[in-house]
Amino acid sequence: MNYTVGQIVYLLSRKDVKVFPARVIEEIKRKTVDQEIISYIVQLPNQDKSEVLLEEVSADVFTSIEDVEKQMIENAHSQIKIFLQGARNLESLFQTTKQSTPKVDTLPPGKVEIDLGGGVKGKIDASQITNNGG
User: Fold this and answer.
1) Rounded to a whole number, what is the distance in angstroms from the first to the last CA of the chain?
2) CB hemisphere CA count around 18 (13 angstroms)
3) What is the mean pLDDT of residues 41-55?
4) Count of alpha carbons within 13 angstroms of residue 110, beta-carbon side
5) Which CB contacts under 8 angstroms, 24+ apart, belong to 9-12?
6) Residue 120 counted as domain residue
7) Does the model's pTM come out above 0.70?
8) φ and ψ at 36, to 5 degrees?
């Protein structure tokens, strides 16, 4: 984006929800073989009237207060949607689950089911189990 020296720009902080004006006080042009790079120095509205490179400011830059307002409304709208979706997700904690009737496995006579661990079960013929231990 190009700015003119003396122009007021509006900075929407990325850290806090704050908007503050800054004045473009210098334009710096650098030419290389491949490109031309333009940087801007802005003056901040603090007591010292600090001067910083615009690209080093942690903020989105706007040329009108109306554009800042539109962006802030869009950001708020997105955040509201996130909050509401979170509430919808938590809502599932209150929904009652239908109690299902436990499944009864009927085994043929003489068969038994043994839990082998790890969710694995086996069925064996009980008549083949011998008691060798005494």
Assistant:
1) 91
2) 9
3) 94
4) 4
5) 9/42, 9/54, 9/61, 9/62, 9/63, 10/61, 10/62, 10/63, 10/64, 10/65, 10/67, 10/68, 11/57, 11/59, 11/60, 11/61, 11/62, 12/59, 12/60, 12/62, 12/68, 12/71, 12/72
6) no
7) no
8) -115, 125
Q: Does residue 25 fall inside a structural domain?
A: yes
Q: Which amino acid is at 31?
A: K
Q: Which helix (H) or strand (E) holds 89?
A: helix 65-91
For the chain, give the number of residues.
Answer: 134
Residue-range definition of the domain harbouring residue 5 = 1-66
Q: Number of folded domains in the chain?
A: 1
Where are the extended beta strands (E) located within 32-110? 36-43, 51-53, 59-62
- Within a domain: residue 116? no
Tokens of 109: 């006579």
What is the domain-level CATH number for residue 36? 2.30.30
3-state secondary structure of 82: helix
Provide the 10 A C-beta neighbour count for residue 11: 21
Within-domain flag for 60: yes
Average pLDDT, the chain: 85
